[in-house]
């Protein structure tokens, strides 16, 4: 109860008497203000005290209900200071102790109102006045900004400072809860610099120290807001403002890219540099966690050169120095991303972007095959050469460990003649100069693998990892040859080949003769898993008219054909 007011019992008696309660006598003139607190809000953060500046609405009537004044009719609240003589004494007393949004009925006796004089033409002498009042705002010249943190992210690496550019959502209300503005209704954040005079002083101060994703309630007294003038029709003069703020993101024009290394492989033999071609997965979010893009949703890595301007500058910088398999977070300010205009309908203007990146692999177009010898038998003097026929086991995977192919999944090892374009060039090179029993790890860049297009089961531009073990090797023959002589061929080759001396050589005689030369060590076939097919190919090459037999005119040595520029034969 405000100082000078009557006790509770006396107040109730006076109120009932004034309202004409049945069965009670008229106690005579009121000595003090009668206060009926007919609505008290559940939450009352502050009560009116002497010297406070207040804003309120009221209706003023006489006992018979006739209205003599109303702030509602004027369409403007009443503002003033309590307890300094600017109000009638009864109102000064009746307003003390009120909460914002509290409603009171006040009965003011004449000696605490306009006395025996009244107000000419409005309030007669010795009039008792009845006021219905709602309190809308309370503040004091000694007030400070009131900041309440409603929620705050667990991780907060940085807070707002002066000269930062902020993007935030807000709901703005008067102290009584009346809304006057909201960024949500505009479906757009409010974007501005802090501490540069572009905001009211209270908001400039209230945003300092916030984290991205933090929510605050900021109560701003009028002298740190719009003061005596108010703002348009929505903010009255001398109004305290309440802002519920969600800081979406912020940056400083001087910011560079911020890197957070989430996971770095223990073994990192090489780091990406300008000119490297990188394959990576990413999730792209705004600072408040809103997802705007993801390579995972497309089930395809993002593939690009770095440091050459093919991607936004911040990502060009953020991928420098990554290891294969590394996971890192790249935070990019808007001036190194999509700037004030944003991109599409998912990246707003001046947005800070956060990329969580997983680097799958990278290579340089100048890269060679990387060969690591895991085990090499001692006393190895013979190694594989171009055109040799080899048998080997292999496991093939991507650099992130994804298994692609394995010879162990088949009944027999892989077989190939080196240099015949039967395997990718990188694997071909990796199998050269190997000893039987040797084991290697090969890292094959895509330009020596399956290239930009990839292959079935192999992504485009993928770096491949092979684990290979050489099981056996056979010495090859020069390119274009199916059989070579270890010494000079017989002078009368056709006669020796014509085993039954009938003047023609059918396929079975030809096959018998060649096999005999191999067994006796006089020559060797091109290595193959199917020597019968090699012999059949030789016969078909010599049987020029394809009549099933070779004549003396048809039989020619490869060396002779090369001189004659005919075509490739024996």
TrEMBL record:
The keyword Oxidoreductase is annotated on this UniProt entry: no
Describe its function.
Answer: PPIases accelerate the folding of proteins during protein synthesis.
Q: What reaction gets catalysed by this protein?
A: [protein]-peptidylproline (omega=180) = [protein]-peptidylproline (omega=0)
- Hydrolase: present as a keyword of the record? no
Principal location listed in the UniProt entry: endoplasmic reticulum
> Ranges for the EF-hand domain?
485-520, 530-565
Compartment(s) = Endoplasmic reticulum
Which GO CC terms are listed, alphabetically? endoplasmic reticulum
Q: Where is the signal peptide?
A: 1-20
As recorded in UniProt, its EC number(s) are 5.2.1.8
Q: What is the protein's name according to its record?
A: peptidylprolyl isomerase
Q: Where is the PPIase FKBP-type domain?
A: 51-139, 163-251, 275-363, 387-474
């Amino acid at each position: 109860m405000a100082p000078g007011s009557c006790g509770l019992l006396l107040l109730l008696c006076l109120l009932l008497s004034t309202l004409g309660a049945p069965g009670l006598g008229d106690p005579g003139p009121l000595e003090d203000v009668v206060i009926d607190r007919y609505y008290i809000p559940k939450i009352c953060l502050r009560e009116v005290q002497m010297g406070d500046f207040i804003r309120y609405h009221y209706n003023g009537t006489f006992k018979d209900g006739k209205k003599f004044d109303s702030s509602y009719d004027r369409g403007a609240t009443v503002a003033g200071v309590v307890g300094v003589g600017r109000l009638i004494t009864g109102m000064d007393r009746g307003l003390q102790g009120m909460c914002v949004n509290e409603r009171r009925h006040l009965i003011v006796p004449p000696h605490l109102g306009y006395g025996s004089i009244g107000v000419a033409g409005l309030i007669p002498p010795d009039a008792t006045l009845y006021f219905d009042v709602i309190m809308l705002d309370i503040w004091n010249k000694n007030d400070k900004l009131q900041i309440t943190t409603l929620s705050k992210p667990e991780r907060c690496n940085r807070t707002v400072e002066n000269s930062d550019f902020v993007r935030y959502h807000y709901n703005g209300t008067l102290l009584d809860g009346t809304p006057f503005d909201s960024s949500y209704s505009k479906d757009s954040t409010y974007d501005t610099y802090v501490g540069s005079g572009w905001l009211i002083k209270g908001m400039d101060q209230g945003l300092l120290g916030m984290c991205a994703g933090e929510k605050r309630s900021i109560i701003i007294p009028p002298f740190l807001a719009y003061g005596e003038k108010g703002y348009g029709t929505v903010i009255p003069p001398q109004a305290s403002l309440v802002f519920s703020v969600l800081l979406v993101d912020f940056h400083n024009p001087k910011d560079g890219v911020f890197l957070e290394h989430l996971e770095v492989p223990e073994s990192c033999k090489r780091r990406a540099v300008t000119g490297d071609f990188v394959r990576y997965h990413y999730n792209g979010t705004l600072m408040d966690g809103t997802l705007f893009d993801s390579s995972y949703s497309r089930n395809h890595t993002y593939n690009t050169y770095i440091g050459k301007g093919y991607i936004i500058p911040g990502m060009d910088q953020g991928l420098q120095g990554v290891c294969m398999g590394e996971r890192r977070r790249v935070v990019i300010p808007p001036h190194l991303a999509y700037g004030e205009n944003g991109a599409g309908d998912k990246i707003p203007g001046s947005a800070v972007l956060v990329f969580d990146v997983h680097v799958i692999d990278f290579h340089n177009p100048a890269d060679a095959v990387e060969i690591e010898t895991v085990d090499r038998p001692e006393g190895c003097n013979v190694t594989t050469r171009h055109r040799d026929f080899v048998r080997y086991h292999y496991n093939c995977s991507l650099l992130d460990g994804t298994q692609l192919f394995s010879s162990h999944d088949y009944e027999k090892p892989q077989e190939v003649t080196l240099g015949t374009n039967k395997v990718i060039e990188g694997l071909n090179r990796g199998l050269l100069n190997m000893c039987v029993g040797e084991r290697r790890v090969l890292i094959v860049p895509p330009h020596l693998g399956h290239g930009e297009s990839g292959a079935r089961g192999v992504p485009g531009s993928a770096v491949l990892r092979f684990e290979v073990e050489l099981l056996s090797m056979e010495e090859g023959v020069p390119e274009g040859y199916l059989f070579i002589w270890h010494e000079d061929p017989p002078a009368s080759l056709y006669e020796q080949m014509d085993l039954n001396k009938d003047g023609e050589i059918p396929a079975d005689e030809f096959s018998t003769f060649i096999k005999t030369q191999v067994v006796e060590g006089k020559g060797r076939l091109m290595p193959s898993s199917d020597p019968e097919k090699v012999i059949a190919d030789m016969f078909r090459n010599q049987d020029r008219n394809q009549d099933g037999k070779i004549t003396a005119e048809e039989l020619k040595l490869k060396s002779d054909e090369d001189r004659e520029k005919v075509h490739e034969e024996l």
